[in-house]
Amino acid sequence: MKKKYTYFIILFFFSSLVYSNDKDKRSEYLNILDQEINEIVRLSKSVGRKNPTVFVRMMYVFIQKGKLLKEQENEKFLRISPKKRVDLDKRRFFKKSEKNFRKAKKIANFGIRKFKNFSGKGYFFHGLSEVALELGEKKGFHENIKKVFRNSKKGSDIHKKSSITLAEYYYNNKSFSKAIRFYENGLKGRKDRWWTKDAYNLSWCYLLTNNNKKALRLLKQVYYLSKNPNFIDVSYRSERELGYFFVMAGKFSDSIKFYKAGDGKLEEKLVRVSKYLVRKGKHTAAEKLLEYGLSNIDKREKKTNLELQILKLYSKFGKYSKHLKISRKVYKKAEKDQLDNYQIETFKNELKLVVGIIQKQVISKRYRRNKRLLKRKLFQTIRYFEYLARLEESDSYKWNFLAGETYFGRKNYKKALLYYERILISFKSSKKNKIVKKALEGFLASLKKAKIENEKKDSLTIFGLKNIILFEPKTKRSNLSHQRLFSLYLKKKKINECENIIFNYSKIFRGESKILEEMITKVMSFYKRNGNKKSLYFWAQKIKNKEFSVGPNLVKKSNLILLSLKFSKVESDNVKGNKKDALAGYLKIYRNSKNDAEVRKNSAFNAAVIFYEGKDLRRSYYWVKKALNLIRRKEIFKFEKTIISIADELFNRRYFKESSDLYFSSLKKVCFTKSKNKGLLLKNSVLIYLSNGSHKKALESLKWGDRCKIDGDAKNFVRLELIKYFNENSKLSDLEKYLNLFSANKRMRPSLIFYYDKLKAYLFRSGRFEKSNRVKSKMLNYYKQSKKLGYKIPLESLEAISKIVKNNIDKKISRLNRVVFNFPENKFNKVLKYKLKKLDEITSECLNLMSLGSSYGIVNGYNILIKAYDDFINEVLRFSPKGRSKEYISSFRASMKRLIGPLEKRGREFRYEAREKILKNSILSHENYKLLLSPQDNFINIKYFPLKDGILMDRGGLN
Amino acid sequence: MKKPLLFFIFSILLFSCSSKKKRSVLKKVEKKDDYFISTKVKKIKKFNPYSLKNLNFKKYKNKRYEKENDYYKHSISNSNIVGKESLDLYTYSEKMKTLGEIKEPIAVAANYCYLNRIDQGLDVLDKIYFSYKLQSKYWNQMAVCYYLKGDYRKADIYFNKSLSLNKNFVPSINNLGVLYNKRKFYQRAFETFNKSSKTNSFSVTPILNKAQLLLKFNLYQAACPVFETLHKEDSFNKDIGHGLGTCYLLKGEYSKSLAIYRDLKINLKDDEIPYVHYLVALKLMGRYNEIKTLISNVKANFRSKYARRIFDFARSR
């Protein structure tokens, strides 16, 4: 009987597990159960209602059926969406199962009433408890279980089972002491499969009732038995909770031993246990356990999880110094790649958690009095930031930034700098990043305040400035940074860097030409000081090519530098005396500088000078002309002297055309300058042009003389030379033209009179009498004007005027001679008077003529006078009145003789005077013979003509 | 008929098209030289301005001018009072002889110029330029050469150049006087000769020039003493002799005049005036036979009217 019921109970429990998992099987079992019910009903009909086991059996079948139907109904109910389910009457869905449970209940109640002495009455109560359980009647369940316990035979299965059930009831209601009694009762005797499960609960009851040792003992037993396949395996849980039990029992080392033994996964177990303990709120126990564990695990790698777990505990309870110690160890492992990804993440999280807390503590004023603690915390904060930076390389800049900020917050600027620097170094891209920008600001702020040695400060400043430029290239700050950076590099003589800055600056700040110019100037000055010609040339060339927008002064200076560099080698040759090499150098430079007028000018000029020194005047001339074409007016003064020397040398060496051309070309160049050589150039060019017969070029030069406002003396000289030339070469029309042109200048007139005389003679010879007379009048006018103005009149001009005056006197004399003496006396006297008067006039005119000062005038003046007097005297003496008596005639002659006496004396005086004057002053006149030689002496009229018109002299002779 | 006509037309077209068009030959516009080339420069086909072949950096030592030794010292100069100072009065053969004797380059140049080999003379001067360029003597000679060439302007420039180096260089002062004389500025010439003779009282040429000028303008009273003095030193000098002879004629001292002219080696072709003066002296001395001898077989093609007149007088009875 017992066996049957046992069989049913087992079947009941087992089927509820099996069938609930399989719908089809459930239906099959329902069919079986229906068949069973029919069988039992048939059986009960046959045996009557006297057999309680039948009713027990039926009760259990209905309970079983009810459970299966409930499962089915539950499934159906759960298929409805939760929203709809809420409003539904749940009971409607469980009618069938409930019906079966009620039936079972009814049968159980019937059985209890009908079979009061039934030994298995407990089964009916058990059934009721099951129904109550299914129907959710907790109280009913409990009551019935109690009745089962009371009404079942001790030691029976049903008694044990109900004992366990009661124990569970009390366990769940946390009445552990009560639960212990029932568990102990239920677990007595033979251990069934469920023993481990129930004993596990019992061990907890012991623990919770502070019976730690008993609890520990029992749980150990549970653990070991769980290994047996005949028992429910609760080893996992028990193993986990043993740790707690050990701790509660104060047996840490035992716990380690325990966990060590077995499969050896001590760390894993300890971690698990510690987590469990933490969940249970036993943090201290967990900590202790872990610490024990850490000290007992030999191989370090295997401690990581423990360490991580303990870190959590430390962080939770603010044990930061311990946290740091462990973190160090874990970090070292992380460095060696001994942590897996999960561990690393865990560790990082831990670090982040703690660092967030302690950083705030550090920055706040909380620990300002406890400097030691503050220092420690600061250290830890920074250390953690460093760890995080290394563990999260992609975000390392953030951690470094925070480290930097922390130090900055604590006014440790020197150290803050390091971190900011680190960020900036690692973050080389100029991509916008807030943190990096902040780091830059932090860096700059720290740099300002940090006390570091100058050299280091400079290098950091450079670094900072570079970063400003990188991150905000076009701002005002960047502009200033460029300049500062430039100055720093220059101070350090890092010229390459300076140059890079210039390039960069010019690209970004195009309008800032002044600053750019200053920078370039400094760089060039540096190179100049250091004699780095190559670099200097490089920069000068760049400026020349307008690669930088700079002011005109710098352009000018750089052009000069270029020039001097180009010529430096050549000039050094020149200075050393390697003139041929220098010359070759200049010619080469000239050839290779087709677009550079300045270079060509200088090279051509220098070549000209060397050719001049090398006595190759032909080429010297060629090159100086080339240079002259390129020399600008305002700089001619630099070259003037040399050009004139070359021109002089050309003349000396008889290169007349070249010489005159060079003088003239130079004149044109210096024309509108303040050169003092204009007059000289004009004179020289004209003289040589005229000596070569190039009067047109000479005229052209004179025109330039007018344009250049050359002084009057030089121009007058040139004009006179031109007139002389025209006269010498019988260029009569030019002579006439230019005489008229030049005579507009009053100062020139005295000199021109002579040439007007020549013109007059030419005109007279060609029959142009009227014109000749006009010229004559002009000559006289000019003479009078010049005399009035006090100008010195040349001897030749005086000669010319003398001729005119003499001619006039001659005319007067011939008019006088036409008047003859005649009688009667009155007529004679009249004529005599007239003639004496005229003689007087002629005398004064002759004296006038002589006073002109020309040899011609003097000699002819005397000649005329003497002749006039002689003629008059002879005329008077020869005259004999006709028809008069001898006495009258002799008396007449005597009186005439008396009259002419003074005239004869005067005539003799004139003759003597003339002679004396001529001899004394060596007056050279063709009429001298009239006064110096008597006709008797020189009746043949001998004249002297020398064999040569002057004897040339080669040597000075004896001296 | 058609075919020949067509052929004819075709050939006209063909030949007219194929004839050479007068190519408008573009004259190569000669690039106007921006430099002139002096005649002294040897014209070469192509002037290479880059050539360094003609360079000569040799430094020449400037020859020092020795005033005390500034006279000719060859065989003829000793017998000629002016010969120490000038080659101007030398005969052709004398010049040739001198050329063989003298070595001094300026003298050589002078000789060439007086021999009318002006270019040669100038070349010699060009060659010695660097050694003598600071000497007035050099520039004086250059000027003399140009004077002899007839290029009086250049002569003037170079005489002045000579004087710019030494304002008391007597030959240049004298020669300027000669230039004035040539240009018929007699008073200036006289003053210049005067200056040069005063600068060096022992120079003969300026004195002679002065005397000639005085006599030319009939100041024989001043001129004749000079001629007399010079004649004493050199009685064979034709210029001096002629001057003195004329002096005597003007003074009426015909026998003296005759004596002078007789001793001179007069050549009708070159010395027509002395020749006619000689004839006049003979005539005034009544030496008609000698006149006859002298004028026989003479084609009287006188250059000057004066010579003609005097000749006619001399041969008339």
Q: What is this structure, in a nutshell?
A:
The complex is a heterodimer of chains A (about 950) and B (about 325). Helix content of chain A is about 75%, strand content about 0%. By secondary structure, chain A is mostly helical.
Description:
The complex is a heterodimer of chains A (959) and B (317). With 959 residues, chain A is mainly α. In chain A, 77% of the residues lie in helices and 0% in strands. Chain A starts with a helix and ends in a 27-residue tail after the last helix. The mean pLDDT of chain A is 86. Residues 19-35 of chain B have low confidence and may be disordered. Chain B has helices at 2-18, 75-79, 92-101, 105-114, 118-127, 129-132, 136-149, 152-165, 170-182, 186-199, 205-216, 220-233, 238-251, 254-263, 272-284, 288-295, 305-315. Chain B is 61% helix and 0% strand. Chain B has 317 residues and is mainly α. Classes of the chains: A mainly alpha (959), B mainly alpha (317). Chains A and B meet through helix 30, helix 31, helix 32, helix 34 and helix 35 of A and helix 4, helix 7, helix 8, helix 9 and helix 10 of B.
Keywords:
heterodimer, A: 959 residues, mainly alpha, 45 helices, B: 317 residues, 17 helices, flat
How much helicity do the residues of chain B have? 55-70%
Give me the Rg of chain A, rounded: 74 Å
Largest sheet of chain B: none
Number of strands of chain B: 0
The portion of residues forming beta strands of chain A comes to: under 5%
Distance between the termini of chain B: 105 Å
By DSSP (H or I, 4+ residues per run), the number of helices of chain B equals 17
Question: From N to C, what is the helix and strand string of chain B?
Answer: HHHHHHHHHHHHHHHHH
Structural class by secondary-structure content of chain B: mainly alpha
Number of helices of chain A: 45
Please, what is the oligomeric state?
Answer: heterodimer
Give the tally of β-strands of chain A: 0
The helical percent of chain A reads over 70%
Average pLDDT, all residues of chain A: 86
Question: Mind summarizing the main beta sheet of chain A?
Answer: none
| Amount of beta strand of chain B | under 5%
